[in-house]
């Protein structure tokens, strides 16, 4: 019956609004889950950095080479986690803006009987649809907003978006994270630290070995 009504009188604005609002809420919940996961991962990584900073050499009480290497690798990961979290919080704000503008658009339609495509909504939607976390549901929302005439049909190059942050983080950001969590203890260590692919220590100790496979897996999850 609803299909027949839509065919004769066009789509029901109330139904269109419910669908758009539902998709926006779905995307918001998805972002909240991602943000909470990153917060948990950030706290865990900070705890691991603090733990590594307590393991000192038995000879001069400074951080061992393996401990320094582990701290620097974990600090790199923490920088990536924080950048990802910032990106998702920015995306959540964009999504909230879309939700507010969608409600305003339907309110204007109810009063004036017409809808006008919004460039601001298009810009935010174009940025959000490229998020790996929201690709599927944002495509659905894009179709719903296009059908409701809130946005025009978009192309990939219509609205520019900011590029993703670079994979390799600046060393100064890593140093700031280490100083924030460990303090001067890392800087005062007399053991030089290199960044090889696989940590190699002169005095291997079982509890100082870094689980690089687990760390790489966690970093891949952040990038995906």
Give structural notes.
It contains eight helices and no strands. It has 224 residues and is mainly alpha-helical. It has a domain at 10-52 and 64-155. It starts with a helix and ends with a helix. The model is unreliable at 1-9, 157-161 and 195-210 (pLDDT under 50). This is Vacuolar protein-sorting-associated protein 24. Residues 213-224 have a biased composition (Basic and acidic residues). Pfam families: Snf7. InterPro entries: Snf7_fam.
Write the SSE topology:
Layout: H1 2-9, H2 13-52, H3 65-112, H4 119-128, H5 135-147, H6 171-182, H7 184-188, H8 212-223
Helix pairs in contact: 2-3, 2-5, 3-4, 3-6
Organism: Arthrobotrys oligospora (strain ATCC 24927 / CBS 115.81 / DSM 1491) (Nematode-trapping fungus)
Biased composition (Basic and acidic residues): 213-224
Pfam families: Snf7
The rough form would be described as rod-shaped
Main structural class = mainly alpha
Percent in strands: under 5%
Oligomer: single chain
Intertermini distance: 43 Å
Q: Whole-number radius of gyration?
A: 25 Å
Number of strands: 0
Largest sheet: none
Percent range of helical residues? 55-70%
Overall pLDDT score: 75
Q: Give the SSE order as H and E letters.
A: HHHHHHHH
Q: Which segments are poorly predicted (pLDDT under 50) over 5 or more consecutive residues?
A: 1-9, 157-161, 195-210
Count of DSSP helices?
8
Protein name: Vacuolar protein-sorting-associated protein 24
GO biological process, one term: vacuolar transport
InterPro entries: Snf7_fam
Biased composition (Basic and acidic residues): 213-224
């Amino acid at each position: 019956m609803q299909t027949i009504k839509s065919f004769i009188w066009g789509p029901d604005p109330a139904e269109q609004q419910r669908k758009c609002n539902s998709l926006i809420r779905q995307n918001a919940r998805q972002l909240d889950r991602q943000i909470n996961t990153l917060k948990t991962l950030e706290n865990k990584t900070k705890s691991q950095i603090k733990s590594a900073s307590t393991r000192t050499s038995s000879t001069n009480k400074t951080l061992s080479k393996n401990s320094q290497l582990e701290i620097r690798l974990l600090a790199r990961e923490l920088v990536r986690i924080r950048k990802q979290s910032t990106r998702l919080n920015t995306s959540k704000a964009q999504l909230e803006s879309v939700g507010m503008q969608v409600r305003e658009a339907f309110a204007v339609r109810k009063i004036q009987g017409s809808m006008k495509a919004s460039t601001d909504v298009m810009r935010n939607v174009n940025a959000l649809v490229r998020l790996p976390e929201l690709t599927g549901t944002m495509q659905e929302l894009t179709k719903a907003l296009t059908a409701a005439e809130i946005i025009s049909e978009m192309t990939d190059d219509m609205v520019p978006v900011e590029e993703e942050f670079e994979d390799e983080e600046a060393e100064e950001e890593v140093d700031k994270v280490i100083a924030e969590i460990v303090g001067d203890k890392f800087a005062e260590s007399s053991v030089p630290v290199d960044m090889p692919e696989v940590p190699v220590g002169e005095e291997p100790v079982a509890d100082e070995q870094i689980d690089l496979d687990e760390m790489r897996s966690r970093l891949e999850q952040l990038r995906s």
